[in-house]
Amino acid sequence: MKISPRPAPHIHYHEHTRVIMGDVALSMLVIYGMCFYYYGVRVAVLMLTGIVSACLADVLCLAARGKKPVTHDISAVITGMMIPLMLPASIPLYVTAVAAVFGIFAAKHPFGGTGHNIFNPAAAGIAFVTVCFPSLVFSYPIPLELLPISPGADVVTAVSPAFTMMLGGIPGYDWQEMAFGNFPGPMGATNILVILTCLLYLVLRRAVRWQMPVVFIAVFCALCWIFPRGGMARFDTVLYEGMSGAVLFGSVFMLGDPVTSPARGWSKALYSAAAAAMVLTFRRWGRLEEEFAFVLLLMNAAVWGFDIIGEKIAGWIRRKLIETGTNKKIPKKTQL
Question: Alpha-carbon distance 28 to 62, whole Å?
Fold first, then answer.
């Protein structure tokens, strides 16, 4: 029998990988629709800039490796769509292009391309431009102020809730405004209700394993409740920490990437819990108001360790089942 190893994502049901990626792209298009409502036609220009830059970089890398583009591989499109959503709507187009190109050049193809990359390309691109252009990345326009395609220095910006908390203050937004995305921040990460709706759709379509975002959000909220910010009530801490920045968007669209996340269910749960704890740690003692991309890259580098721990837990459960005799037929998978 000849065994051919295949790269992730490993789909265990009849949906094709392209359909899974299509569901993710469709969900992000819904978020882009809300961004268009808040900021105008410039949102579409940013999306096209990200997609074109990522796809051109992908084609160049494939040509350099002596390979041809694969029609069903739209991972570069996903990366190009994801990056602008993590940036302000007023970001210069070249910053979006730099992030997309860096993500493909530095985080995808050096490790073997689609299915082999260790790090999430979108997270790598966001982290790179955050370090290179912090003043641009953290300048958020006011929602419902429609932006021209080439905004100048006269764009009115506002402080994000994450920055206010980083300085020790309390954001002045109520939960209704934040639920509908009417506050400054990364243009795709502020639409809380839309992101939650997209999560439900992706779970029902089995494009996302529900354990990872649910465990992440649950652990993150629990830690915020146990360790409230100074001067803030516990409920307010949970509300503002969970809705600000890219916490929710990242947990839905980036954390569960099947290529850069653990394989076994127990590993996924531990990985998500550790990521939640690290995000909160970076928020409390870090020097940047947006930390999710950096945390995700660190977690990507530790996936192998979580896979080992998850396998040991599953093996221990299987041995206990045998020893106790409670289940003579051992399940094929000891997962969550």
Answer: 26
